[in-house]
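As described in the Methods, two query proteins were run sequentially through the folding procedure within a single session, without resetting any intermediate state between them. The first query and its resulting structure tokens are shown here.
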Amino acid sequence: MDGLMLSEVEALVAFVNTGEAGAPSMVKLVGELGPRRARVACIKLLSWLKSQKRIGKLFPLRVDAQYPWAQDVRHIVEKGTSLKDLFISADGVVRFRENLEQRKIDDMLAFVDGAFQPPLMA
């Protein structure tokens, strides 16, 4: 997987797993959304990725505008990070870009499946 793309996904995982917004893109995102909203949106996005690895089938993530987390996921994909190179948000769903190589998708899903372990937060 492309280094920048992987580093963005790694930054999301690290933020959720540790609660620390270490990467510049995450610091910016937390500044825009706040730590709780950013964490919820990252968990939704990463859970979707992890579930695709576990199920073994690609499917879109529904982002219904009536839910704040969905608006925040769209913000992450469209404006908040460099993930717009990986995903597209349109017609109420987030999905992989069509020009993304299957190998890159598989690498990303495998990374998220192994690394994404969100701790419970009070």
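Immediately afterward, the second query was submitted; its sequence and tokens are:
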Amino acid sequence: MFIAVDGISDSLPEDVQRFARNFTARSGSVDRGQQESEETASDIDRLDAKMLDRWDVQAHQYTTQAAVETSILGRLLGGKLKASSCGIVQEAKRYCISTTDSGRRIEHGTAVRLSVVVLETELDVSLTLPNIAAKSQISNVTARISLSVDGYNGPLGKLLPAPDNLNVENLGMYTAAFKAIQALVFGEDGLEYLAPTLLGFMDDDVDEQAQNVD
């Protein structure tokens, strides 16, 4: 399954760490002081963006504790995970695919992500954002929602809302913010701020099948 992450950390598999660090060194190895005078910083940043030859909008469902802890969802509840934790990461991304020395597929690029993690002994609805929001509204289900941007170093102003408990009312606010940030980051004005980072990797050891939804 695909494990969505937000950059390099010591908890990643060793082959992913090695490749990601080498990738970062290669993509950031341009010495701007040695460039010809007619090249601008923006021109050089665009060279990195040309590596990102794929675009996608996906939703990744995680229904085991191992999957939640390994992915970016683990940070949302600050270590309060239970064996029944589950969640979903909806992402819009521009990226490239590479393979580590052990044959593992990994992705680098830029992503705008809407993430929800749930703590519940038994979630009796389908794992979608509207269903989780509705369940949180009418029961004691604990769900946290956040919006994050990875691989982008430009200004976002007040477009990025803070993490919060999920309910029907603020789901609309987060969805609107997701669309606005997606348009900014992947538009012409955001191109010079793309700074590709590790977005995720395939992990067959996690006992889960990822479900990708357009």
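The chain is about 25% helix and 25% strand. We note this only descriptively and draw no conclusion about the first query from it.
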